[in-house]
Amino acid sequence: MSSELGVSDEKILALPEYETSQLYTEAERVALSFADCMTITGREVTDELFARLREFYERDAIVELTAIIAWENASSKFNRALRIPSQKLWKRKDEG
Fold this sequence. Notes:
Distance between the termini: 14 Å
Largest sheet: none
Helix content: 40-55%
Radius of gyration: 15 Å
Shape: globular
Number of helices: 4
Structural class: mainly alpha
Number of strands: 0
């Protein structure tokens, strides 16, 4: 989906290294760190991270970002528990 929105292949492939990749802006790195902290067990959104998020995003954008991350996490857990297989939406059309 990201590639359909104009995100380069190089940037998509660099996602695992978003914290250090020069392909990501500081605002993108903060948003991705926020997503990691919401998603990965044992991590927490610290006051410092939330303050950094507020440097780049307004309140409504933070609420929307939080809702999207929470929805994706809930959807993932729901599907896994009910043994619903991936629809491979994350794959490129040319990957089959």
